[in-house]
Design brief:
The complex is a heterodimer of chains A (309) and B (191).
Chain A lengths: L16 H17 L14 E6 L5 H12 L3 E6 L11 H9 L5 E6 L4 H8 L3 E7 L5 H15 L6 E5 L6 H12 L3 E5 L15 E2 L3 H7 L2 E4 L15 H8 L3 H5 L6 E3 L12 H4 L6 H20 L5
Parallel strand pairs in A: 1-2, 1-3, 3-4, 5-6, 5-8, 6-7, 8-9
Helix pairs in contact in A: 1-11, 2-11, 5-6, 5-11
Chain B lengths: L6 H7 L1 E5 L1 H19 L5 E6 L3 H14 L7 E5 L30 E9 L3 H9 L8 E10 L11 E6 L5 E6 L1 H4 L3 E6 L1
Helix pairs in contact in B: 2-3
Classes of the chains: A alpha/beta (309), B alpha/beta (191).
Chain lengths: 309, 191
């Protein structure tokens, strides 16, 4: 198969295993491209892409923009701050105004769950979800799996633990879908207050003890505590969180095997992981960033391929 | 009375052999000699097999150059042109990319593109753009096994060629390689 089964990338939930395989195979080629002396291909020179970011972002926005430029697309950027959104314009009006400028593809991050889904049903452009509230962040999950595949050879059969703030994390949900679709075993670990109720219904086990979780896993994906999404105190103190759910070098060295450490960024150094863990050779955090560009190029390329002339 | 003819037999009936394994061998040796005439020890020359099917011809030529003429250390790369094609979003079934392996810089080198069949010239046009990502070559030549003349869309001609053929657009030239297809042969298929 050399076409995606979907027209938009709204979430991993809508993908098939064969879609992920196609994205990864295509990303392999783009990874080679972005390591050339000239890191650009002309494929999307007649495609215009709008990056609509209604929420703060550093690496995702940069990564998408770089991916688009490496594919030779024309790119326009929009941030909610300083735009007409603050004057009361609705999402659909904003999008339609941008589409009037003949945009083919929209990459959107939005604080509300389902915003991308809504947009895909109401505007005539391909949509890529760059994070919608606490729902999904599909390209992050794809680049996480891609990085595991690169480091360990395959995702199938691997044990992956996602540690931290699962409740507010779109990265966690997308990762759970993506990992399971590829045949990995997933556990989550974190304070009980930050584990969603009924998460077991997704086929995920909850392991409250970090040491046990790390002993079990091949890969630990350390999530950030999302203070900005917390309207309550979910744990007594950051210090206590770090003591119970933070990974330091001593803890890693005490394990019976060498596990892979991942983090979607931005890192709160000294909270979920210490600096020596973030910079250790078993950490693939910077590989994730590089792979992010290749994976996003693949997603954009494969969706753009379907746009009618 | 009706006879049922299996599809594979029908296929065989509609294709004729253009080159046998022996003829291909002779041509490859000649092409290798022609390359030596122009490039001597290949110290300033790199061979680039065009994906997907030019890579077998490129490997074969390097093998002859190394084993028969003892020219070692020939730099050989594989170039995929999928992302440089001019028919993106124009095909019903998209083309899947292949691997590019060029572990050297082509800056100031003599580059020889190697492909099995030269037809419209569009693949080579794409390759001319793609190779620039690896530097600015001093010179680029083109070697093809089969040149389908009179079917070019662009002003592109081979520097070295195995055999020229005149075939109509409905016909397909199929090159088979021992390492990929189990035998060496070139067929003209009537679609």
């Amino acid at each position: 198969m050399n076409q995606l089964s979907v027209q938009h990338l709204l979430g991993i939930k809508h993908l098939k295993a064969s879609d992920i395989e196609l994205i990864f195979n295509t990303a392999d080629h783009f990874k080679e491209v972005i390591n050339r002396p000239i890191k650009k291909v002309p494929s999307l020179r007649d495609i215009t892409i709008a990056n609509l970011f209604f929420e703060n972002s550093t690496r995702t926005k940069l990564s998408f923009e770089l991916a688009e430029k490496r594919l030779s697309a024309d790119v326009i950027n929009f941030s909610a701050s300083g735009s007409s959104v603050s004057k009361g314009e609705t999402l659909i009006d904003t999008a339609n105004n941008i589409l009037s400028m003949k945009v083919d593809l929209i990459v959107m991050r939005h604080p509300h769950v389902g915003a991308c889904d809504f947009l895909s049903k109401n505007v005539d452009a391909r949509i890529i979800n760059a994070g919608d509230g606490t729902h999904e962040h599909p390209t992050q999950a794809l680049l996480d799996s891609y990085s595991i595949r690169e480091k360990l050879g395959s995702v199938k059969g691997k044990n992956v633990v996602i540690v931290g703030d699962i409740l507010h994390s779109r990265v966690a949900l997308s990762n759970i879908y993506a990992l399971q679709l590829q045949g990995a075993n997933v556990k989550v670990c974190g304070p009980k207050s930050l584990i969603p109720t009924h998460i077991e219904s997704l086929g995920v086990e909850v392991e409250p003890n970090l040491k046990k979780a790390l002993e079990w896993c091949d890969v630990a994906n350390m999530l950030r505590v999302q203070n900005e999404r917390m309207d309550l105190n979910y744990f007594p103190s950051t210090r206590e969180y770090t003591q119970l759910f933070g990974v330091n070098k001593d803890l890693l060295d005490s394990l019976s095997k060498k596990i892979v450490i991942m983090h979607p960024g931005p890192i709160n150094r000294g909270v979920e992981i210490t600096s020596d863990v973030a910079d250790a050779d078993q950490s693939i955090i910077l590989n994730q960033v590089e792979n992010g560009v290749a994976v996003r190029m693949a997603v954009i390329y494969l969706l753009a391929q379907q746009i009618e002339r | 009375m009706y006879f049922c003819i299996p599809n594979n037999v029908l296929e065989l009936m509609s294709q004729k052999i253009l080159l046998s394994a022996k003829e291909i061998d002779i041509i490859l040796n000649r092409l290798a000699c022609q390359l030596i005439e122009n490039h001597t020890d290949f110290s300033e020359t790199v061979l680039i097999g065009i994906q997907p099917r030019g890579i077998y011809l490129a490997e074969r030529l390097r093998y002859i150059l190394q084993n028969k003429y003892e020219i070692n250390d020939i730099q050989l790369g594989q170039l995929d042109i999928t992302f440089y094609r001019d028919d993106f979003r124009r095909r019903e079934i998209p083309i899947e990319a292949n691997k590019t392996t060029i572990d050297f810089i082509v800056e100031n080198k003599n580059v020889v593109f190697i492909d099995d069949v030269l037809y419209s010239g569009r693949s080579i046009r794409a390759a001319l753009t793609a190779i620039q990502s690896f530097g600015r070559p001093l010179e680029i030549e083109l070697l093809v096994l089969i040149d389908r003349r009179f079917s070019r869309h662009l002003p592109i001609q081979p520097t070295y060629l195995g055999r020229q053929v005149d075939v109509i657009n409905e016909e397909k030239v199929l090159v088979q390689w021992q390492e990929k297809d189990g035998k060496d042969a070139v067929y003209i298929q009537n679609n």
